Amino acid sequence: MKKLAIMGVAALLVVALTVPAFALENVFGGYWRTRFYTQQDFTGQEDTPNPNNKDYSAVDTRTRLYYTAVINDDLKFVNKFEMDAVWGVGGTSYGDVGADGIAVEVKNSYADFNVAPMLNAKVGVQGFTLARGFIADDDFSGIVAAFKTDMVTIPLVWLKVYEGGMGNEVNQDDFDYYGTAPVFKPNENMTIQPYVLWATADDYAFGGDADGNGIQDIGDADIFYAGLDLNLTMDVASLWFTGIYQGGEVKVDSGYPNKAVDVSAYLVAAGGSANLGPADVHGQVFYATGQDPKSEDMEAFFIPAGQSYYWSEIMGYGIFDNQVSANACADQISNILAANVGTTFKPMEDLSISLDVWYAQLAEDDKNDENELGTEVDLTVTYQLVEGLKLDIVGAYLFAGDATYYSKNKDDDANPVEIGSRLSLSF
Question: What pTM was computed for the model?
Answer without folding.
Answer: 0.89
